[in-house]
Amino acid sequence: MHRRTIAQSAAALSALLLVSACAPSDDAPDPDAETVAEGTAGADGECTGEQSTLKVWSWRTEDADTYEQIFDVFEGENPCITVDFQAFLNTEYNQILSTGLTGTDGPDIAQVRSYGQLQPLIESGNLVALDDIVPEVREFDETILAGALGREDGQVYGVPFASQTLQMYYNVAVFEELGLEEPETWEDFVAANEAIAESGMTPMAVGALDAWMLPIVHDILSSAQYGGSEFEEAVLSGEAQFTDPQYVASIQTLKDMQPFMSPDVVGVSYTDSQVLFTSEQAAMFPGGSFELAFFQEQNPDLELGVFQVPPAPEAVLEEAVTPAYADGNWGMNANGTQTEAAETLIAWLATQDFGQMVADDLKQFSPVPGVEFSDPLMSEMWEMYQESPAPYLHLVNFRYGEPLGTDLMGQGAQELLLGDKDPAQVAADIQGGLSEWFTPGQ
Question: Where is this region: Disordered (predicted)?
Fold first, then answer.
């Protein structure tokens, strides 16, 4: 019944872009055809009307198998609708989605980014406003819903699907073997890294070849040092800049911790860093809650622990914090031709039933009210965030223009780790790049 694919090779993605730009595929909907009315289920659960097939796109290739099971549930409840789920490489997804939404071969429903990365799709008229279609979304936590709103009109253009927290994972068995405990001070953290290195194991698995990961690593190590939410408020109002001493010092901390990262760290990919950790060649992994299900699947015997990295010396904040962000949303294609079926699906994506499957099966923090987190490690991560929240600064606030804050921090961190620039130069590049489009106080 399902026709689901995972487009993973660069060649396949390039071909898809070319095809999407030039002509619809064989099974593309006829742009002149009328919208097919959604069928109904008979007493035996069979479809008694017209059958609809909805294309659903995602950048989460690692979640594809689980989404198959989740959409099986939807199809059981809606036998006249089949879901064709397709997942693409995350680094290529934005371009593929942009091309697909403007043509006749795009998705009916798609995962779309949050905050600033959502705005181009809204401004180009590619997404349907959902306020009247899924009014329940307005009941979501406002800090999460902020990532789904149009900046100009304040309307809802997506159903948020997950929040992500950032923290340090660690191998419990390694810590026990070396007599280590979760660090309570920066000195404890450095001592743990030193003990792990002396044992011959890599302390922290970091993949700096993929620049997008480095702003995450930086915030995990240094958000408390530069001030977390306090710095966020100050820089947005114009009272602080990224060239201020505390932010420059936080970049220096990233450089100071390089000896404890993967050897030749800028040549190590994100995927390689995951393998280093799950194969127990590295004792710690600075990453997001989105890693949890993958880690557990790849090595079920790996006992995981998590902790917040304590504040570095002379930090602005006295306590550790957990940075977090709204990961993305489900959006509805404004050019789709199967409106009724698409509205049925996107409304279902806002239900507690779907949200609970996201939490239980994908191990993601669903923002749907009433969802509970039964996995002990998830509960611990969520509790840490609730006690001491902070924003994943560049993603939440500085992706509303070009160059993106995450790109500036990622490229700057690569240059830092290569020894090409010092922390002050990286900070100056970030401030200069953001000043091209960001005006404080607006």
Answer: 27-48
pTM, 2 dp: 0.86
Helices and strands in the chain: count of H runs, count of E runs: 18, 10
Task: Reply yes or no on whether the pLDDT at 33 is more than 90.
Answer: no
Inter-residue contact 221 to 228 (CB < 8 Å): no
Per DSSP, what are the bridge partners of residue 305? 170
Distances (CA, A) of 8 to 15, 18, 429: 12, 16, 33
Domain chopping of the chain, boundaries: 5-163+326-375, 164-324+378-434
Calculate the alpha carbon distances from 399 to 283, 312, 414 in Å: 32, 27, 19
For the chain, the 3-state helix, strand and coil shares in percent, each to the nearest 5, are: 45, 15, 35
Average pLDDT of span 184-188: 98
How far from 306 is each of 246, 365, 383, CA to CA, in Å? Answer: 26, 16, 12
Q: What is the pLDDT of residue 45?
A: 76
Q: What is the DSSP letter of 135?
A: G
Homologous superfamily assigned to 5-163+326-375 = Periplasmic binding protein-like II (3.40.190.10)
CA atoms of 216 and 396, how far apart (whole Å): 12
Cα torsion 285, 160, 8, 363: sign: positive
Q: Is the pLDDT of residue 438 over 90?
A: yes
CB within 8 Å of 218: residues ≥ 6 apart: 250, 251, 254, 409, 413
* DSSP calls for 189-219: HHHHHHHHHHTTSEEE---TTSGGGHHHHHH
User: How confident is the model over 343-355, as a mean pLDDT?
Assistant: 98
Report which secondary-structure segment, H or E, holds 54. Answer: strand 52-58
What does the pLDDT look like over 195-223, one tens digit per residue? 999 999 999 999 999 999 999 999 999 99
Confidence of residue 43 (pLDDT cuts 50, 70, 90): low
Q: Give CB contacts under 8 A, 24+ apart, made by 14-18.
A: 16/88, 16/96, 17/95, 17/96, 17/99
Q: Are 414 and 211 in contact (CB under 8 A)?
A: yes
Has residue 22 got a pLDDT over 70? no
Neighbours of 237 (CB within 10 A): 10
Query: How many angstroms separate the Cα of 271 from the Cα of each of 206, 209, 263, 299, 327?
Result: 10, 10, 15, 15, 19
Question: What fold is seen in the domain 164-324+378-434?
Answer: D-Maltodextrin-Binding Protein; domain 2 (3.40.190)
Coil, helix or strand at residue 3: coil
